[in-house]
Design goal:
alpha/beta, 4-stranded mixed sheet
């Protein structure tokens, strides 16, 4: 990574991701494996209320979700966009699936990256394919992340 293209923010919550340098390197590897090039990718951890307001404003949907992506790419082989992640939803998923919070955050980050990479999860077949990709990339996480 020549310059920092992956940025982390938080909105309406008090939570900081750990090991950001290693996390950036892992996300960079995932994007590179999926595409030749990418521009800025912003990962924003936020509250349910913040993400629900985005959903209402941009999708006219009034429901809680764990992740929402906004794709800013300008070509087939370019990834660029914002990934909004509801920390309360991810925390609830971690409890539901008896996993660690950081593992669920990483899964949702990769889920968002896959959406920005052109994957969809509306149909069962597509959802299965995304889950397989998520599992693959989670298995490639650096130790200590």
């Amino acid at each position: 990574m020549e310059d920092q293209k992956i940025h982390f923010f938080h909105e309406g919550i008090d939570y900081q991701l750990k090991n950001k340098t290693t996390l950036r390197q892992w996300i960079d590897m995932v994007i590179t494996m999926e595409h030749e090039e990418y521009h800025d990718v912003n990962i924003i951890l936020c509250s349910d209320e913040f993400l629900n307001q985005l959903s209402l404003t941009y999708l006219s949907q009034d429901h809680f979700t764990d992740v929402m992506t906004f794709d800013f790419s300008e070509g087939d082989q370019v990834v660029s966009g914002d990934i909004y992640i509801s920390l309360p939803r991810v925390r609830e998923n971690a409890n539901k699936y008896a996993s660690y919070l950081k593992d669920e955050i990483h899964r949702v980050i990769i889920h968002g990256i896959l959406h920005l990479s052109g994957y969809n999860d509306k149909r069962p077949r597509d959802r299965h394919r995304m889950t397989e990709k998520e599992n693959l990339y989670l298995s490639l996480r650096p130790k200590g992340l």
